[in-house]
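Pilot study result, target chain (252 residues):
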Amino acid sequence: MLIRPRLKTEHWLPDAAVGAARRAKLFTPEEMVCTTTLYRYIDDQRLEIRNIDLVEKANRRTKQHKSTKHKRLAGRSIEERPKAVERRKQFGHWEMDTVIGKRNGRESVILSLIERKTRCQLLRLIDGRDSDSVEFALREIKLEWGDCLRTITADNGPEFSTLDKAFEDTDTEHLLRAFIHLMRSRLQRGPHRMIRRDYPKGESLDDVSPSQVLAPQDRLNGLPRRKLDYRAPQECFETEVRRTRRSAQHVS
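Predicted structure:
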């Protein structure tokens, strides 16, 4: 059955499994169940899947985060960010955060960038939670995806204090601009929970290889999303990249 392995081994959300099955017309209308029914089947243990097997389920309590202003800003305030970024209609606007293993952040960490329109995610293992490591990784990313970077938004952590420096020699059509949250906020709470399936909090990332980090990246980017009409982020991202590069060729 399609749904069971998707949920249990590939960590799809029930809604993604239902939407992908409906989009691919794998079942007749009489056989097709809705997301609510699928959750009920899981609760009733009719699919040999437990709630613990799901990436996100049940814990809806939200924590209250205090806004803490920082004196140091690596870029303009998020209040200055163009409205097009909020609407997710324009390709090339990214959010960036870090996923740490041990709490002190002095060991290797994962740098995470998410493109807002396509929800495609890039994961890179870096040496530490410091600005030099972040800057080095961003320069590598720019070599491959520089023409797909319009803006980048991060929180005001010290590891992002040199964002503008990493792109000061940008020669693409759109000069990348950094926008900063004035508080230590979790920009990517949902995707982080999925990454934690592979790399739980408190476990060192020093023994993880860069190639191993690509496994959760590929899984996240292959997960159909409702907001993408149940297409996968990777598919949408590749479409946008081709469109962007064709447009650049016509201009040149």
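One observation from the pilot: The chain has two domains: 3-53, 76-251. A full batch analysis is planned for the follow-on phase.
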